[in-house]
Amino acid sequence: MEKLQNKLIGNFEDLNTHIYRQVKQMIWNKTLAPGSKILQEHLAQQLGVSRTPLIKALQRLTSENLVEYIPRHGFYVKKLTLAEMMEIFAVREVVEGVAARAVAEHATDAEIAELKAYFTPFRFNGEWSSEEKKSYLVNDQTFHTRMVEIAGNRLLFQINEMFNIYRFSYQKGLVRPPDETLQEHLDIIAALEKRDPGSAQLLAMRHIQNSRENIARVIKENGSLWGELEV
Predict the structure, then answer these.
(1) Superfamily classification of domain 82-222
(2) Average pLDDT over every residue of 99-110
(3) Second-level CATH architecture of 2-77
(4) Other CB atoms closer than 10 Å to residue 99's CB: what's the count?
(5) Where is the HTH gntR-type domain (predicted)?
(6) Phi and psi angles of residue 209, each rounded to the nearest 5 degrees, phi first
(7) Average pLDDT over residues 165-187
(8) Of the candidates 67, 95, 113, which has an alpha carbon nearest to the alpha carbon of residue 151?
(9) Residues 143, 121 contacting (CB under 8 angstroms)
């Protein structure tokens, strides 16, 4: 009887986690857009579950600041202000710096070669086709995620995952032109290859700082978050 109860509890917890991940993915891919109200009954039907596991998922996402609950109105996908976006980038600046330092200190040669390989297909040519920009965007995003993974710090990974969700919820393309960021990536990789933790950390932080400053400028000029930065 006890084993059966434990199995039922485990299945229930698995369902809650499954729904949580599904809703999180919907925020990630903009199926649930920033600022939109989450229609619980409709979403529960769409996911094929009752409202109970959905509400638990929304509460968990609220604790992660991806969803916000407004009394008497319901749950909404979090819509970031400029100040909040800049705060996230400030945190990411630290995360990327610490990750780069750890990679320079502890990564294998093969792992650093993997990071370098994300940018070897690209050259400085001044003219980038739409397909080249899309390919660069994917490799850029993968590079930053893998660097944090290789660093081996679970907390850094969790913080980076949260940032990625915010980024993909808003971002339509590249934050800065490839010719501008490619050299920054290559400089970071060169520091990693030299096993220079201090330079790797400084260059990684400066790279994010440059993107943060550019985003702030674009938002002020266009009045929206990344809306015009399409590939």
Answers:
(1) GntR ligand-binding domain-like (1.20.120.530)
(2) 98
(3) Orthogonal Bundle (1.10)
(4) 26
(5) 13-80
(6) -60, -40
(7) 77
(8) 95
(9) no
| Residue 37: DSSP 8-state | B
User: Tokens 């109970």 appear where?
Assistant: 52
Please report which confidence band the pLDDT of residue 168 belongs to, taking 50, 70 and 90 as the band edges: low
**Which CA distances in Å does 76 have to 32, 43, 73, 165, 181?**
9, 13, 9, 15, 34
Q: Count of CB atoms within 10 A of residue 126's CB?
A: 8
pLDDT digits (tens, 9 = 90+) for 44-80: 999 999 999 999 999 999 988 889 999 999 999 988 7
Task: Decide: 150 and 103 in contact? Cβ < 8 Å.
Answer: yes
The tokens for 53 are 């596991």
Q: Which residue has the higher pLDDT, 34 or 205?
A: 205
Instruction: Note whether 76 and 36 are within 8 A (CB).
Output: yes
Q: H-helix or E-strand containing 68?
A: strand 67-70
* Mean pLDDT of the region 80-107: 89
Alpha carbons 200 and 207: distance in angstroms, whole number: 11
Residue type, 22: Q
